[in-house]
Design brief:
single chain, two-stranded antiparallel ribbon, about 300 residues, mainly alpha
Length: about 300
């Protein structure tokens, strides 16, 4: 019989993992849905946002910011740095390979991933960076002797907020109509007056900004490391395969599936966590290659 407090904390942990995975995979899905590019560099864009946030907190000192600004300004700075990287990368490196075969796109984005990794090493050094004061300042909530950090609730709420915001953007705005039209037929969208090149740059920047903000919030909770982007990218691709490439609904539901599977396996048999997720991913690829909600 599982203790009720452990069960309740496990529910919140599942939501926490799902929120982080959705924040990372939603940007990947948005970029793939419009641009049809599997962006391997997305992981280190995520990590760059994490490093930028922690660097800002360390460089200027926690005491120099009002308490409420700890949770707003540094993550926004991380997102802004990620967006600037996207603005520099997309027109110069990715746009020339849009019409090339997929392997060229994968090689190019993988090259950007490696360049960003070396750039982080050059700028921030090989050691992990941490500025966890905002995390500890929010305190914890007690569930019968088992504590759960209040900051984790903030990350969960961020995931829900971004999911709602992206749904509204895609299905209730003129920009969303252009995004969906470009996703279906770029030539027709361009013939109807859509500036496809500018829209693709905007999509890439929005996806990178979401990743940067997500990395920043995660870095305050844990630490910023050189392997952060690659490690989280593995789980993001699992989410994309299960949910379906380009499907935001699929990313949301698959994030919940993977998040709660991680919690369940960690409680029962932690050594099998990644193995089980890859087995499920392989099963999805064999039985339904387009994912649960992806188009054929």
């Amino acid at each position: 019989m599982i203790d009720p407090s452990i069960f309740l904390v496990s529910i919140f942990n599942g939501l926490l993992y799902a929120s982080v995975l959705f924040l990372l995979s939603s940007g990947l899905n948005l970029i793939y849905g419009v641009m049809r590019i599997v962006n391997l560099a997305h992981g280190n864009i995520f990590a760059f946002g994490a490093y930028a946030c922690v660097w800002l907190l360390i460089a200027f000192g926690i005491e120099s910011l009002p308490a409420t600004a700890w949770y707003i300004l540094p993550p926004l700075f991380g997102g802004a740095v990620a967006a600037v990287i996207a603005i520099m990368v997309e027109p110069t490196l990715l746009r020339p390979v849009y019409k090339r075969p997929e392997e060229f796109q994968l090689i190019m984005t993988f090259g950007v991933l490696l360049v960003l990794a070396d750039l982080m090493l050059l700028l921030f050094g090989p050691m992990p960076l941490a500025a966890r004061e905002p995390f500890f300042a929010m305190g914890v909530v007690d569930f019968g002797g088992i504590t759960f950090p209040n900051y984790n609730f903030l990350v969960i709420l961020l995931g829900i907020f971004v999911a709602a915001l992206l749904w509204f953007l895609i299905y209730r705005t003129r920009l969303g109509v252009m995004l969906r039209a470009t996703s279906l037929d770029q030539s027709m969208a361009q013939a109807m007056g859509v500036n496809v090149k500018r829209l693709m740059t905007m999509t890439f920047v929005i996806g990178a900004f979401i990743a940067g903000v997500a990395g920043a919030f995660l870095a305050i909770k844990d630490t910023a490391t050189l392997t952060l982007g690659v490690n989280t990218l593995v789980y993001a691709f699992i989410v994309m395969v299960i949910g379906g490439l380009g499907s935001m609904k699929g990313a949301f539901i698959a994030s919940l599936i993977v998040g709660y599977l991680r919690v369940a396996v960690t409680l029962l048999y932690p050594e099998a966590e990644l193995m089980l997720l890859w087995l499920i991913t392989a099963g999805i690829l064999l039985a339904r290659p387009q994912g649960l909600f992806g188009g054929r």
